[in-house]
Amino acid sequence: MATAVIVDAVRTAGGKRYGKLSGWHSADLAAEVLSALVQRNDLDPALVEDVIMGCVMQVGNQAVNVGRSAVLGAGWPESVPATTIDRQCGSSQQSAHFAAQGVIAGAYDVVVAAGVEVMSTTPMGASVTPGSFPMGPKVMERYAPRGGVVMQGTSAEIIADKWGLSREELDAFSAQSQQRAAVARDEGRFDNEIIAVKSKVYDRESGNVIESDELVTADEGIREGTTAESLAKLKPAFKEDGKVTAGNSSQITDGASAVLIMSEERANQLGLKPRARFHSFAVTGVDPIEMLTGPIPATSHVLK
Fold first, then answer.
1. Is the overall model pTM greater than 0.70, yes or no?
2. 8 A C-beta contact, residue 7 and residue 273
C-alpha cells in the first residue's frame, strides 16, 4: 500500500469581504494557486492525474465544475482532469482526503487537492435559488419538534449555551487569535505558503472590477490591536441577547489554496522532499442543529 505525502502547499492571502481579492473570478483565482504549485516544484503539470477542488457555493462564477475551469485557466494540458466536491465547510479538507485515499489505493501517483471561494460575489446561500428547498420536507419534519434546522450562527449560539461558554470567554479567545495571527504574520510564518496575486476589487456601486498592480501578500482579516474589550462593544449578530458577534465569528473570506500530494515513491523519483505524510483521516456526521460540533467526534475517531 502506497504512502501518501504532501510535497507542497500554497494559498492566496485571505481577502476580506469586498476587499482586494473580491474582483477575482473564482476559476482564475484558483488557477493562480495551481500555477504556483507547478512553478515552485518545477513540475510538469501533465503528470497531475487529477485535481480535486473543494467549493461550497457551486453556483454563478463557481458553477459547472470550477476545478476544471481552474485547470484550463492555469494553462495546464487539456488532458488533466478535475472535479469539484461539496462537503460544505469541510469541502477542501475532503479534497485532501480523497486525493490521499487515491494515492494509498494506487489510483494516483500525483494529484492536487485544492479549494476556492470568493464569498464577496458568490455569498453563502447563493446556491439556494428562488423557489428551491434544499433540505426537503422530510428533513424539516424530522427536526420540527426542536424548532427545525437552523443557520450556523444560531447553531453557534446553541453550542455556546450547551457548553456554558460566556460572551467574555468567546471574546477573549477571539482577541487572542487575532493577536497571535498578527505576530505570526509579522514573524513571516505565512510567507512561504502565501503566493502574491494582483489586487482586483469588486466595486459594489458600479459593478465593475478595479484592477491594480498592487500585490496582495498578507491576510486582510488580521486586525492587530484587537482586544477583548474592543470586541465586547459589538452587538450580537444572530440572537438579540446572544454571545456570537461579527468579532468572535469566522470572517467572510475570498481566497484559494492547493496542496500537491504524491506517493512517496513518486516524490523520491522526482527529487521532491515530502513535507508531511497522511497517517489517518476521518469524517463523521453530527446533529445538524449542532452542526459545528463535527470536529469533536471526527478527531476522536481519527485518534482511535
1. yes
2. yes
